[in-house]
Structures are given as structure tokens and as C-alpha cells.
Amino acid sequence: MEKRWKIATAASEEVEALQRSLQVHPTICSILVQRGLKTYEAAKAFFRPQLSELHDPFLMKDMHKAVERILRAFENQEKILIYGDYDVDGTTSVACMFQFIHALHPLSDFYIPHRYREGYGISQAGIDFAAENNFSLIITLDCGIKSVDLIEQAASRGIDCIVCDHHLPDAILPPAHAILNPKQIDCPYPFKELCGCGVGFKLITALSKQLQLPDSTYLQFLDLVVTAIAADIVPIYGENRILAFHGMKQVNENACAGIRALLKLSGVQKILHIQNLVFIIAPRINAAGRMDDARKAVQLFLQPDVATAMQFAEQLQVNNDERREADSQITIEALELIKNDPYHSAKKSTLVYKETWHKGVVGIVASRLIDTYYRPTIVLTKSGDYVAGSARSVAGFNLYEAIHACREWLLGYGGHFAAAGMTLLPEHVVSFAAAFENAVAKQITPEQETPEILIDAVIHFSDVKPAFFHILQQMEPFGPDNMRPVFLARKVKNKGYCKLVKEQHIRFVLQQDNTTLQGIGFNMKQLFPLVESGEWLDVVFTIDENEYNGNISLQLKVLDVKAHVA
To answer: How far is it, in rounded angstroms, from Cα 387 to Cα 365?
Structure first.
């Protein structure tokens, strides 16, 4: 589909000032200025993140109370339950916290709710488990901030709760002994964008400092923290950048047995980047909760060596294969439903429903449908006596508000700007679909109906040199608020060797003036006639390395192509 190109700009005087101090390519300086890095000191902190720059964990509201309560539990020989969500952020959080607590206090265990039997967050079954097994302290991770009633019930049964969460709090907070969440209005903690595992890491850090343990006691978990950062799509700046930078270093040099087992199964042997965690590690961890029981994901991370970890990694691999098969089949069926809907082309939203679809993959399918039909999308399936589903948005559109406007047809819903979930009665599906379409049509703007590519800079092919790429590499890890730089080259031409690969992808050989570069464009076969025509082209791309027969060269990863307009 047609994409809008938006070229970012930076104040020339700020770029020139930074270029004088850094003495690097002005395009690099322009990108840094666009990202708020306008001084030598800011750029140095960005390119050389230091663990010493992490904030004091005791700046977080209730941290002293949380540490005091845990140490009291140690002293009084109380049983502690580590409770976390079933996704990557939750399971890595639990793996970190449980290993740390259990090494100091064997009277501890962990609990992961079942995605379908118990649902998200603290569950009644979880509270019952804690009470029946005489746990007097629960530490929640990546959940709990909205569990007012259940935490109140836990307190009435003699169980204290320490909530470690990063989701936006409601006006009414749960009556927990301590709440660690930097997004609380009155929390003075300087960095607000930690993931759930990041909040748990700060608690482990505080406990280590209070007990005067060596730094390695908490830093050993950085590989799991960066896995959570990658999977939870939190902004990669500030503390998240420091944690991600050093976490990736640990992943490559001394990853835990669980991560190494997953990598061994996937066949990856090269130096890993954060995108490898997003596309290789995270889906396999998530698949455990989507298709079966996420407890095995935590057990994977607790294993002392690759041989024992491999038993759990293989189970996750099977779950992931099942997830991919279900995802693929449901996407085909959903696209067929849309194709057969004579009214869909006139709609501003997409909603599809089939009773037999697997609940664990409907969110993934919603994202797949947006790749073909770029509009806010909901995929529904039957869940017991009810209908449940997941929604995904397009860039800039507030999905949560649109669903909130349809709440009269829903039994429950939750989520945020870009993604949400809901449950409803089967007899209300048609009415909800109409209400959602109406809400989207009222709120969406014409710009939000077309995907946008944000371009960092216009460059010439002659700029694409190893020294330039080497500096780009130092901007890693990439992610939200620090995306891989995207470039535009104008008036380039097919050198005559472009071809289709596997009937879907274009292998490019392009020339601009006297410089020729190779590249690859995935799933771009529809643009091949334009490329082959011999017209002048404008090309949008990122820069990557290609290794072939032991030789490494720079190549373009082409994102879009248009005919050049003079």
C-alpha cells in the first residue's frame, strides 16, 4: 500500500555546534539533535552508557518500605511468594526475583497465573494458593497496580503484598504494604519508563545495597532485563538504554543457560542484537503462555546449565511451532472473511470473528491484518460462554478511546493507546462491531489511514561507507525513541541487475552518480515493475551488513521505492 514519507528536521545551528564538538559526519549529528542529544556531554552519555549512571533505587516511592518488609520476612522465616504475569516481562521478572530471593531465603516459591483459566494480573486462584500454603508476603511483578479488591482480600487473610508494576495506576490504588511504580503521580523516581522487570530489578538492587552484597548479585540478571525491555517495547533512552546496552553485552558474553538453550535451538551463532531478542527469544517465551502454561518459561531461566535448560527450551519451541501454525492458519481464514465482506472496503475499521480460533494468537493475527488492511483491527473468538478478542491500532490512533466509546456492549475491556483486549456476550458481537466502526470513523484522521515512514535524513550513496556505518552501530540498541536510522536517497537508478527472489522479495543493485550499492527489499514484489522500468527512483532504506562467502559488505535494507519527482 502507498506510504507517506515524513522527513525529520533539526535546527542547523544546533547540528553545526554538535558537529564541531564531535567531529563526525554532519548527518549523524543531525540525527542526534533530532533525538534530543544536542551537546558533547549528552552524546558521550548516549554512546558510552555507564552503569554508574543508574538512579539510586531508594528514590522510588515506597522502596524503603518494600525492603524493610522483605528483610523482616527473612528474619521471621516467613514464606514469600513471587507472583508475575505470563508474558515475557512477567516471566523474566519472576525468574530474576525468585533466583535472588531464594538464594537468600529458601522459604520462597513463584506463581504464574494461567492465561485462560485465571486471566491477566492477580487472580483469585493465586490468592487462594498463597493462603492455603501459608505465604504471608506476595511480591507481584508486572501486575497488581489495578488489583484493588484481590489485594484487599489478601490483606484480610493475613497476606501483605508488595506491588512492582509499570502500568498506569488508576485513581484508587490497591491497599498494598508497598507499591513500586514510577508512574505514580507522587513518585519522585526520575525515570518513568521502566518495564516490569526493570522495576523488579530496582528492588533487587535496593536489597543488594541494603545487605551490602556485591554488585554482581543484581547485575547478573541484566540479560533477562534486556529481554524484557526488548519484548515490552519500552522507550530505549535513559535508564532503559543503560540497562539494554549492558544487558546485550551480557547476552553476547555470558547469557544465562535458558537464553543460550533457546539460541542453540534457533541456530543463531552470530553476535546478537536487540532485534534478535524481539524476533527469536521473545516469541518462544510468549508462546508458553499463549499455547500452554507460562510456568515452564520461568523454569527455563532457573536451570543451571544448557543441558537441563534444553528440556524446557524444547517445550517452548514446540509451543512456538504450534503458535506459528495457528497464527498462519487463522490469518488466512481472517483474510478470506474480509475478502468476502462486500462492505469492508468502505469501512474505517476491521473486525473479524470465528468461534474456533485460538485465543492465544488473536492479537498477533490482528497485527498481521493491519499489514494488509491498514486500519484499527479487532479479532474475536469464542472463550467458554463468552467472546474474547484483541485489538491493535494504527500509528497515532487512540484505540483505547474508541473501545471505551463502545463499552455498553462489553463485559470487560482493558489496554492502552495501541493495543487492547475485551470480552462480550456472543449476541452483542454485531452491535459491538457497528459501534466500533462508528467510533473509529468519528475519531480517525485521513493521515492515520495511511502508514507513515519517518525518515531521519536525506543522504547520498557516497555517504554509505564503513566509517559512517560504524558510528550507526554504536547507536544500538535500537527501539522506541531510538529507532534504527532511516535514510532517503534521491534520483537513483536500477543498475540492470535487480531481480525477484523467491517471488516475493527484490534484490536491488542501484546506482547514484558513480556509487553503486546492493540491497534487499522484503515483500516488495508489487514494486518490481517500477524498479525494472529504468525510471529515476527515490529509495528509503536502512543500512546493514551482508556476509557472503566470508566477505562482509554494506547493503541497503530497502523499505520503500517511489518514482523520482524533480
So the answer is: 16
